[in-house]
Write a structure and sequence with these properties.
2% strand, two-stranded antiparallel ribbon
Length: 164
């Protein structure tokens, strides 16, 4: 630590000289993220996806420590929908994975008139959201049901965004 921070000699006896490794989690490679075995893999994947695309598509990997993971995302993102999703789902039986979180995130966002941080009705925002859900493995029919949209409109949005 003394190499990184200037500490007056008088204070050095009172400070532990510790080496600290700092990692920029959002900049880890997919291979590095895949090596994590705990829920931290989900957190690292979340921040890496947000850095790369500005969106998060979710994963079906089981979350072991739901409350801790959602509280961390709540604090880091300053978005109370993570906490609200946990509270609401806790009453109904529990969140199993990030796809469940996204379901609640979308529901809460729709109730607030916001869809994944974009104002409802903005074509680009909706197309981006639809495409992200499609890229995460959802079928156009599942997306249409979840977002209460016509399947043809969902397919058109997927087509539009994939060509952009």
């Amino acid at each position: 630590m003394f190499e990184a921070v200037e500490v007056p000699e008088i204070f050095k006896p009172f400070i532990t000289n510790v080496k600290i490794n700092v990692f920029e989690i959002a900049w880890l490679s997919d291979e590095q993220i895949g090596k994590f075995k705990s829920d931290f893999r989900i957190v690292a994947d979340y921040f890496a996806q947000k850095r790369k695309t500005g969106m998060y598509t979710g994963t079906k990997d089981e979350i072991r420590h739901v409350e801790a993971l959602l509280q961390l995302l709540f604090v880091m993102e300053k978005d109370d929908r993570f906490e609200q999703a946990y509270v609401e789902e806790k009453r109904k039986g529990g969140i199993r994975n990030m796809c469940d979180v996204i379901d609640h995130y979308l529901k809460i966002g729709e109730e607030k008139g916001v869809l994944i941080g974009l104002e409802k009705g903005r074509d680009e925002g909706e197309a981006k959201t639809i495409y992200a859900l499609f890229a995460s493995g959802m079928s156009p029919e599942e997306i249409a049901a979840r977002l209460k949209k016509d399947v043809a409109d969902v397919k058109a949005a997927i087509q539009k965004y994939s060509m952009a």
